[in-house]
C-alpha cells in the first residue's frame, strides 16, 4: 500500500466535502456550521490532551489552562440556560442521555418515552442507550395530526406505570411539548422529568421556544451542534438543588460514560455559548421565521407539508410527505440536485428504511445569511426537482450559483485575532 497516497486521498476527500457543502443547500435538521473562533478551538493544542475529573480535581497534570476553559464554559452554559448545574463534558447528546440513565435509573426501571416511529431519538429506544441500561420502555400515545404527544393518553400512561423517569424529546420536533401539564402529573407520581433538547437547544437558548427548566423538567440533555451552532458534543443542565442527584449526574458522566473527554470541543462549546448569549435571540428568531416561510412556500408549491392548520412548525424543522415509500427516492434525488436532506418516517409509516417523508431544517441556511425571501427560492428548487421533474444537473448548477452569495458564517464574532481560522466556507 502507498500510505502517503492514502493520506492525500483522505485529505482530498475532505477538501471535496468542504466544496460540496459550500456549494449545496445543507438542510439536515441536526447539523450546523461553526464560527471561526469555534473552529480555532478545534485545532488548538487541547485537541490532544487529557483531563479526567473536574476543574481543580484532575487525574493528570497540565490542566491549569483547561480548568479555566471548563469553568468558564460551565458558567456561560448556566447563564445561557438559566440553571444552577451544567455539565459540558459530554461528547454527544446520546452520551448525555446515557449518563442520565446511569445516574438516575437502575436496570429494570420503567421509563416513559415516545416511540422512534413517532419521532423519538434512537437513544431512548431498546436498541439504544436506554436498552443498554436495561430500562423498561413504555411509549406515550402520539397525535399524528398535531405531531405531538397525546396529552390525555400520556397522563394515563404516567399514572398507570409511575415510571422512574418520564422522558420527553424528539428528533422530529415541530412543536413544543406540553411539558407543564405532563411534569405536574409526573411529579405527583414521584417521577423525574427529563427533557431531551438536542434539536431545539439553540432555540431555547435564544428564548424562542419553550423553556423546559421553567416548565417542569428536572434535567435537560442536549447536543451542542444543531440549532445551537457549536461543536459536536453534548450537555446536561439542571436546576435541581438536591446535592445527591446533582452528584449522581456528575458520576453518571465520569466515571460513567466518559473517562477523558474532548477538551477542544469543550473550549469550542464555551465560545458557542458566548456567541449565543449575544446573537442567539436574533438567530433563533430568524431560524423559526425561515422554517415557517419555507413550509408555507413548499405548501404553495403543492407539497403535502405536515400540520398546515397549526402553521406547519414552531421550530427549525419542516416535514412533508412525498408519497408511500418515496422518501428515499426523494432524498437521493434532492442530493443529486445539490439539496442535502434526509428521508424520514411520518405518522402511518411502518419501516425506517421505507418512509414516505422528507425532514428539512432551516438552521444552517439561516446561519449563512438566508432570510424569508430566500426560503421561497429554496422551495422553488425543491419543487422543480421533486414535483416538476426538471433535470437535476440543471438545478445543481443554479444552486451553485445561488450559494455564491451565501458564504459567510453569521451570528458570531468576527473581530479579534482569529489566527488560523477562516471565515469563508470556500477559500
Ligand atoms: N438522529 C439525529 C437526527 O435527528 O438527525 C440526531 O442525533
As laid out across the biggest beta sheet, the strand order is: 4-12-11-10-9-5-6
Overall mean pLDDT stands at: 95
Q: What is the CATH level 1 assignment of one domain?
A: Alpha Beta
Rg over CA atoms? 22 Å
CATH homologous superfamily of one domain? Type I PLP-dependent aspartate aminotransferase-like (Major domain)
Helical stretch tally: 14
- List low-confidence stretches: 417-424
Q: CATH topology of one domain, what is it called?
A: Aspartate Aminotransferase, domain 2
Largest sheet: 7 strands, mixed
Beta-strand residue fraction: 5-15%
Category by helix and strand content:
alpha/beta
Ligand inventory: D-serine
Helix content: 40-55%
CATH architecture of one domain: 3-Layer(aba) Sandwich
Beta-strand segment tally: 17
Distance between the termini: 32 Å
- Principal-axis shape equals globular
Provide a short characterization of the protein structure.
With 427 residues, this protein is α/β, with parallel strands linked by helices. The chain has 14 helices and 17 strands. Bound molecules: D-serine.
